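For the sake of transparency, this paper describes our internal protein records without simplification. Because each token names a local backbone shape, the row as a whole describes the fold. One such record is reproduced below, unchanged from the form in which we store it:
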Amino acid sequence: MPGRLPTSSDFPPSLNLAIIPPPSPQSPVNILILLHGLGDTNLSFATLARQLSLPETACLALQAPTPLPFDLGGFHWGDDIIFDQASGQMDFDTGFTKITKIIALDIIKDTLLDECGYQSREILLFGFGQGGMAALAASTLLSQELGGIISIGGPFPLSKFGDDFSTTTKNRTPILVLGGSSNTLITETPVTKIRAVFEFVEYHRWNKTGDTMPRSRDEMLPIMQFFARRLRSRRGVPEGSVEIG
């Protein structure tokens, strides 16, 4: 049986999330969970979900649980707030213990898999910056392979494993990680560490400064190609057939 479109009542009431149904009226085949960047809210990614208009895919734009201090506005995914004394900027990697359990257990396992009837392969994550770090960390709590993870400017958090990235079995969830060509968090060392945790990793370096969201068709192309490979479809599948892969 295909999974059903989740409703707000399926999730813990403490979560702030927007549910964006697929563009067609049929039951969604895929679920895409979107995680915004540090200091943002889920409103921008709810808008992104509508703009993507991915076929047969419902989107969940989750808001980070903790507001930033000092009336800065926006929310963050970390366990703590730490400011770099040299730059004055907030550290992205401040621990993800709380949010990884929320994403992996409360949202994916308890709600989407057990309650709504999806398979793990039908669930994908899309995160920007600190949201990408949370997505990568959350997937390591699950024994099942997810449909894929896209992380823009979000390396695997050192707070998860420290400097020891050796694992006996690599996670088989396919990863697409993207970053700029300069002033980026996605350099050779972070990519190597992601590949130490995940078996299938694709790295795309944009020819631009910084790890910003894609601003052109060319910058969006590798993301849409990843979706084309990883999103499942029941269009044209005869009744009673079984999709493999």
